[in-house]
Amino acid sequence: MELTNVILLFGEASLYFFVMVSLLEARHKIGLGVFFCALGVMHFLETYLASVFYVALPFGVISPGSSVLFSGKLLMILLLYIKEDAAVVRQPIYGLLIGNFLIVGLVMILRNHDTLALIEGRSPNISFIDEMGWLMVWGTTLLFFDSVGIILLYERLGGLFREHPALRFLLCGLVMLTFDQLGFYLALRYVSGAPVEVLFGGWIAKMAAAVVYSVFFLIYMHASRTVPPKNEALGVSDIFHVLTYRERYEQLLESAARDHLTGVYDRGRYDIEAPRIIETNIRRSHPVSLMVIDIDRFKDINDTFGHTAGDIVLKDVAGILSTALRSGDHLFRFGGEEFVVVCERLPLDGAMSMANRLCRTIAETVRTESGSSVTVSIGVAAGPDDGQALAPLFKSADARLYRAKQEGRNRVCGRDGPYEREMTFATHPVA
Fold first, then answer.
1. I need a labelling partner for 265 at 20 to 30 A (CA). Which of 12, 201, 236, 330 fits?
2. Segment 157-177, tens digit of pLDDT
3. Which CATH architecture has domain 2-111+125-223?
4. For 304-352, what is each residue's pLDDT tens digit?
5. 228: preceding bond cis by omega (within 30 degrees)
6. 291 three-state secondary structure
7. What is the pTM of this model?
8. Superfamily designation of domain 259-419
9. 3-state SS, residue 119
């Protein structure tokens, strides 16, 4: 029986992680709202299972709601931060907190109704909802502090384990899930008198969940970096899209504005979209950043390995940029080996951090035919300080790119000069 419980728990964790990751990966097509909704609707089930549903394992008594679902939610929030940024990850955290306080407020009003027992033997159990509401509020409050803590810890561990994101992911999970287990057990003890076995069994289960989810995270990050998108045949669910003339027309415009080699937006789309994006953000007093990204020694790659090999490098770099950017970022192939990224609602410090991450990821991932590392140099500018229109922003970013090249390539340069805090990996450029 205990072995069966272990297998079932692993299956639950696998299903939860890969469904949620699929929604996160599809955010550019279906929007982040789908991911947020899926994250939120699970909260009641997590709390209910954590309060009444327990199973026996070799090391103690645990609840799948706490050890599998809540652990998965916290690590999903960290993954959302890694894939997007702090501004995006705040949305589900605040939404869950406010929503659960709303539940308690509504229950306090609902309990004053004079209800009718229309079905014999069935009457509303407001006391149960009331109890669940307070547990959900306490759990979400803990989640708020867990989420802030796990993000800060992930950043702090970057100085020690910059080249090992899965290890950082694991350590953050171990620390914050330990804190959460203690905090939620205190509430369970107060509300339902949960025995101490729940504390220790649940803690061991959460540590195991952190390990399992970290392995899944490592698999996901490896796959998302190395597996190119595939053009698959349309399924039944896609018929409605191709039958609509308007969507066909929009798809035609979309494909026409893309670079035929890399699949990202081309220079023509840049000339149309980039000025509008920057003007809109400046008018609304939102920060906006622009990155100019250039592949280092690209001519040497073409001369050494041929233009076909150079095309492969361009595709690989474009693929990494497309995968790593946020939903509010816009990627264009400016020309040759140069790309431009326009980032909405992102100030200079955030853009520098993102550019540094892109620079590092490309150097770690992209290789020539001989196995040599391919690196990029990036110049970064941000409005309104560096300009309030496309031309001055591009001019500043381009000048900083040139400076990054002069300083030795494979680095990011912003307003204060080269940004080398995280550039510690070894690279072997083409000779």
1. 236
2. 877 777 788 888 999 999 999
3. Orthogonal Bundle (1.10)
4. 999 999 999 999 999 999 998 888 899 999 989 999 999 999 999 999 9
5. no
6. strand
7. 0.56
8. Reverse transcriptase/Diguanylate cyclase domain (3.30.70.270)
9. strand
